[in-house]
Specification:
13 helices, four-stranded parallel β-sheet, 367 residues, Rossmann fold, alpha/beta
Length: 367
Amino acid sequence: MTHFAGAKDFKHDKHTRIGVMLVNLGTPDDTSVAAVRRFLNEFLSDPRVVEFPRLLWWLVLHIFILRFRPRKVAKAYSTIWQKGGSPLLLNSLEQAAALQVELDSHFPERFRVALAMRYGNPSIAEVMEKFRQQHCRYLLVVPMFPQYSATTTGSVFDEVTRILQSWRLVPQLRMPMHYHDHPPYIDALARSIETSWQENGRGQQLLMSFHGLPQRYLRAGDPYYCECMKTARLLADRLGLEESEWQAVFQSRFGREPWLQPYLDKTLISLPESGVHSVDVICPGFAADCLETLEEVAKENKSMFIKAGGDRYHYIPALNDQAEHVRMLANIVDIETRNWMAEVEMYNEPEQASNRQQLAVQQGADA
């Protein structure tokens, strides 16, 4: 007999809420090699992330990558780990808490906000189960990836819909696929940069660094590159930059095949030779600071630039829980759930709730 998950003795008169699940990529539970290996295994086993013949990739992953790479990654995590956990987890939890406060200030008792990670903890399945127990019959999933890619947003969609296949009561579901050109997002980035320039001075060039992808993903139809370039153009226009004052670049490539270009590291090495000795770097594809921004971009690439002859290198932090970023997220939630509001209010009317529960009790007695 097929079993679908549902609450025992379900109460039909319970008030419903709109669940808002912010989803980021994920993080190991700690900096041990074992924890990092578990995380990398889950992450790199996702066929959305690595599109390669599965048997061959399984052999490469388990014979080579998971034997050697976890130690190196664990060492990198140890340089940025904070008392309460990884920066990505802590920054993302602060975002969720701030968004809950912002939504409550406009719509009291209407939303339940929680953070989930695609890989690691808190898992999407865990958070969705909490929403189900809280009687959230409406679910808004917000992937914290401004630019769509099958490797990130697409994978979140896969996992959410996989879980819902086992639910008896499937919630109304929405998931914005991107917000790469959302005006409040561009404004939040621009004001963050302007604040940094006021406080720390301004470099000769602004580098907008996005996480890389293999070029073949672009050729296969993934819009990620196009959306990154649009974000960069809109941000440069918003800041009033000339072409010589900014570049969009890509970081964090892995393996030997060509990835999206230009590469951040090679660009940094070449800049001093062309007369650019002072740069600011921002990562508009990262909603929260993490290993790739704090260790790779802020530390490793800074050292590379200075060694190549650069004088000044300044990393501009991700938006994290900045007030304008939180308001932007609240704006997305408002846009996506606006026509749910009337339904929720009507559903929660005392008379209607009482009628539903009475009917359920009567039908149970008749059975």
